[in-house]
Amino acid sequence: MDETVEVAAYYVVAEALTNTAKYAEATEVEITAHLSENGLELAVTDNGRGGADPSTGSGLIGLQDRVAAVGGELTIVSPSGGGTTLSVHIGLSTG
After folding, report:
1. Long-range contacts of 58-63 (CB under 8 A, 24+ apart)
2. Could you tell me which InterPro entries the record lists for this protein (predicted)?
3. Helix segments in the chain, DSSP class H
4. For the chain, how many structural domains are there in total?
């Protein structure tokens, strides 16, 4: 795996954990990662209060930019009162 993909994945997890600790009031966080020939799938899910809004802070916007820079996509699902999931897919070059 390319080092830039590793760095992007690291920052996704670090920022998600930081946001969970600061804002989510969560009691649990689950991190999953799956690497295959199709790419890297990464998800960070908490059981906190939800309501994360990328437009209100630079952290989530920065993550979206960092993931996009390596050809990936970041999806944030965070219904109010229902926890938050950050999901990332980064395709891997085979050449």
Report:
1. 59/15, 59/18, 59/19, 60/15, 60/19, 62/15, 63/11, 63/12, 63/15
2. HATPase_C_sf, HATPase_dom, Sensor_HK_TwoCompSys
3. 3-19, 58-69
4. 1
Give the contacts of 40 (CB within 8 A, at least 6 positions apart). 1, 5, 9, 33, 34, 72, 88, 89, 90, 92
CB half-sphere exposure, 4, CA atoms < 13 A: 12
The model's pLDDT over 7-46, given as tens digits with 9 standing for 90+, comes to: 999 999 999 999 999 999 999 999 999 999 999 999 999 9
Domain with residue 76: its CATH number is 3.30.565.10
Query: CA 54, CA 38: separation in Å to the nearest integer?
Result: 27
For residue 95, being part of any structural domain is answered with no
* Chain-centre distance for alpha carbon 69: 14
